[in-house]
Structure prediction request, 223 residues.
Amino acid sequence: MSMPHRIALLLLCALTSVLAGCASPVAYENSPVAVTNQADAHEQRAWDNHFRFSSQTNAKAPQRAQAPAQQGLMQRAHAVVEQLYEFPKLMVGTILDRGFDLVGTPYKFGGDSATTGFDCSGFVGFLFREEAGIDLPRSTRELIELDVPNVARRDLQPGDVLFFNNQGRGRVSHTGIYIGNDQFIHSSSRKSGGVRVDSLEDRYWNSSYMQAKRVLAAAVPDA
Prediction:
């Protein structure tokens, strides 16, 4: 079982305990509940780098008066559920933070190591494996076939995986990770310095762009 699904299972167990009236919340090791401060830190770093993560606002309907004990139980239950749906956002933060730290790492064909270098798919796979516990296929041809949602370019969000045809052969040949503001991070080539940030508005990348996939959707348990 992958790390995201293990954490989701722990969260669901915590929710069950809360609704059953457990006297005190359980803090599971490695659960999103235990790393709220870490999530805040990652989000702040993302703002400092001028990349905005999408957010949602939830309108709350008026509720009838509840006994204090019941209110406490419901508040804890809502907190668990909110953490479950914030988990992909936390992973976006950790993935992009690590990616920014690796800017300047040399390009190496077939590489997937922060020490010796990355090729494009090795870089994407390294970040998702190390920071989100998601094992991805090794090649761009396999990556683009993943059974995860396709994303229209107008709907791109940080963390989406991008695919390019930059060799003029009509098939995928490059990949990177969207970071917001029409920019993406990738391991480009030996000549261009390896891991770097580029813009989708650049004529070269705009013309070779193919599609995007929301790989982090695999981290959210099925409804």
In short: Confidence is low (pLDDT under 50) at residues 18-40, 46-63. Residues 3-52+68-99 form one domain. The first strand starts at residue 112 and ends at 113.
